[in-house]
Amino acid sequence: DAKTTQPTSMDCAEGRAANLPCNHSTISGNEYVYWYRQIHSQGPQYIIHGLKNNETNEMASLIITEDRKSSTLILPHATLRDTAVYYCIVRVGFSSNYQLIWGAGTKLIIKP
Amino acid sequence: DAGVIQSPRHEVTEMGQEVTLRCKPISGHDYLFWYRQTMMRGLELLIYFNNNVPIDDSGMPEDRFSAKMPNASFSTLKIQPSEPRDSAVYFCASSPRIQLAKNIQYFGAGTRLSVL
């Protein structure tokens, strides 16, 4: 079973920051949080991941709470092409035996 | 880099026929994953390989499904015999060798399978 809960859908205006929340209250100390997105009719695409510290890359920022029970993905300046389903995932397992447990994701719609 | 390449992109077949889906992972990646995606069940991991060896096939729905990875650059997912409930989009993904925090999976474009 997925170890994360996300809102089913969200809207955001083009040019604004999109903030996507995720709850992972049962996460273990060594489990990473990953974010992927899936644009319609394409395969999922990696966005960012983190363990404890906040992370930023060219696509997004990941803010993880101090207790690690939740996180927020931030798309700083959303464009229409960011419309997609966003998956928050906890990686379980270790070394050569691990899995990404996928939930239902959040459908993000960017509106002009 | 061409990315993960899957073929065919679309497959339409009749119930009872054998279906073979193909995947070429990104060169140098040690891990290969097969997923199935449906509206009802979302994205499900079927099986994954590490260095061509199957590590976990617990997601394979039943004996009609089989997967092989004869070498580092090729994998197949076979369904025999196929049934209408197998209709889904099948994704292949590959990943570089584990580096504690960098298990990033790269997905192919998927094969949309329709079993009539």
What does this entry look like structurally?
The complex is a heterodimer of chains A (112) and B (116). The model of chain A has no long low-confidence stretch (mean pLDDT 90). Chain A is mostly beta strands and 112 residues long. Chain A has strands at residues 9-13, 18-23, 33-38, 45-50, 55-56, 61-64, 70-75, 84-94, 97-101, 106-111. In chain A, strands 1, 3, 4, 8, 9 and 10 form a six-stranded mixed beta sheet that branches. In chain A, strands 2-7-6-5 form a four-stranded antiparallel beta sheet, with no helix packed on it. Chain A starts with 8 loop residues before the first strand and ends with a strand. In chain A, strand 5 and strand 6 form a beta hairpin. Chain A has no helices and ten strands. Chain B is mostly beta strands and 116 residues long. Chain B has strands at 5-7, 10-13, 19-24, 31-38, 42-50, 53-56, 65-71, 74-79, 88-95, 106-107, 111-115. Classes of the chains: A mainly beta (112), B mainly beta (116). At the A-B interface, strand 4 and strand 9 of A face strand 5 and strand 10 of B.
Write the layout of secondary structure elements.
The complex is a heterodimer of chains A (112) and B (116).
Chain A: E1 9-13, E2 18-23, E3 33-38, E4 45-50, E5 55-56, E6 61-64, E7 70-75, E8 84-94, E9 97-101, E10 106-111
Parallel strand pairs in A: 1-10
Antiparallel strand pairs in A: 2-7, 3-4, 3-8, 5-6, 6-7, 8-9, 8-10
Chain B: E1 5-7, E2 10-13, E3 19-24, E4 31-38, E5 42-50, E6 53-56, E7 65-71, E8 74-79, E9 88-95, E10 106-107, E11 111-115
Parallel strand pairs in B: 2-11
Antiparallel strand pairs in B: 1-3, 3-8, 4-5, 4-9, 5-6, 7-8, 9-10, 9-11
